[in-house]
Design brief:
Layout lengths: L15 H5 L9 E5 L5 E5 L2 E5 L3 E6 L2 E6 H13 L6 E3 L4 E5 L3 E6 L4 H5 L4 E6 H15 L25 H4 L56 H6 L11 E3 L2 E11 L3 E3 L4 E5 L3 E8 L5 E8 L3 E4 L3 E18 L4 H6 L12
Antiparallel strand pairs: 1-2, 2-3, 3-4, 4-5, 6-7, 6-12, 7-8, 8-9, 10-11, 11-17, 12-17, 13-16, 13-17, 14-15, 14-17
Helix pairs in contact: 2-4
The chain binds P-hydroxybenzoic acid and fe (iii) ion (FE).
Length: 349
């Protein structure tokens, strides 16, 4: 049996240039004039999107859906910034996207047993650049001045009300992705007050001491070290894994978490979670039906493998540090779908 060795493009080498070049004014974005609340309505295929002071509305030929607009903006922010991520980004139990790395499924009720049985579900496959431009246009238009969808609710303003300014600086923020490792010459660097990243209010007890590194002459380009906890204590965003080290397909993606993961992530590969501080409760459901599978309470020091056939959402009662370990190989979804690799990375017997 031969494996396809030409790896498909995968999320975690997101095309940063393509994300930066997403064009909300592109002719592939369909929008109407502003509504009574000052916001544009948008359409993509047979889906249409609108917002008022409190809610986002999604309409498709067989149904409609309403979400609190703060939750909608937090979810669409992740979808845009992560270029549709690995597998499925459920905005909630009904609406979301599935990444096929070049095209994206836009769906409603597709991974919801009740919607499927009632035949209310709908799905359309769209070219990635078109949904990227459309979602970028939506988040720019629907985000008011003072609301940052990446910030914890305690550290940002309100998403509600009539159209009032914008927060383009926040919503077009690029995810931190080291090429090799934070701290190496020419790569992402540790954070400091000076670079605009003060220590977060929940991490004032975290040591800011950095390791002393003395590479032998000739190895300065290859040897570096940094304090991961000090680095994370200065993160200004929540639920936004950054890539701090890369070893072939092995990506270390730590993140700081507070309140609720704004998406329910449907995996297309397994992921390892190492809880570095504090505590997160994970609600784990069957990926395709939404049926409950487990509640996982991860305390500092706990390690969990999240299988490829689940979806999960985390709840972090105070800011916590989580290390997500991803295998970025583009071959994995097919190896799992074809049954060559099990959905779980380890069996405890
Ligand atoms: C995940 O879906 O695995 C995930 C996403 C964002 C995070 C943490 C975990 O911040
Ligand atoms: Fe996940």
């Amino acid at each position: 049996m031969s494996l396809n060795t030409a790896a498909a493009p995968t999320h975690a080498e997101p095309d940063a240039a393509a994300i930066a070049a997403a064009d909300p004014d592109s002719s592939d974005v369909t929008s109407t004039a502003t509504n009574a609340h000052g916001y544009h309505n948008f359409a993509l295929g047979e889906f249409s999107f609108s917002r008022d002071e409190y809610f986002a509305y999604v309409i498709w030929p067989t149904g409609q859906h309403v979400m609190s607009v703060d939750a909608f903006l937090r979810a669409i922010q992740r979808d845009v910034a992560w270029d549709f991520f690995y597998g499925i980004v459920n905005f909630d139990g009904v609406f979301g996207t599935m990444n096929h790395y070049g095209t994206v499924d836009l769906f409603a009720g597709r991974y919801n047993d009740a919607y499927r049985k009632a035949e209310l579900d709908h799905m359309e496959n769209v070219e990635t650049p078109i949904i990227r431009d459309t979602f970028t246009a939506i988040i720019k238009d629907w985000t008011n001045e003072g609301f940052d969808p990446f910030a914890s609710p305690a550290e940002t303003g309100s998403a509600f009300g009539p159209k009032s300014g914008n927060n383009d600086a926040a919503v077009t923020r690029q995810r931190v992705t080291a090429a090799r490792m934070v701290g190496l010459p020419g790569d992402e660097q540790p954070r400091s007050d000076g670079s605009g990243f003060p220590v977060n209010r929940h991490f004032v007890d975290v040591s800011q001491e950095e390791p002393q590194v003395n590479p032998e002459p000739g190895y300065e380009d290859r040897v570096a070290g940094f304090s991961l906890k000090a680095y994370l204590s200065r993160s200004d965003v929540t639920w936004n894994p950054s890539v701090v080290s890369v070893c072939r397909d092995s990506l270390m993606c730590p993140t700081t978490e507070e309140y609720i993961l704004p998406i329910i992530h449907g995996n297309d590969r397994s992921e390892w979670f190492i809880q570095l501080s504090d505590e997160i409760t994970w609600e784990v459901e069957d990926r395709d039906t939404g049926r409950k599978r487990a509640t996982v309470v991860a305390k500092a020091g706990d390690v969990a493998a999240m299988p490829a056939d689940i979806r999960h959402q985390g709840y972090s009662p105070k800011r916590s540090m989580l290390l997500v370990w991803e295998n970025n190989s583009g071959e994995i979804p097919e190896l799992i779908n074809s049954g060559q690799v099990k959905p779980q990375p380890v069996d405890f017997e």
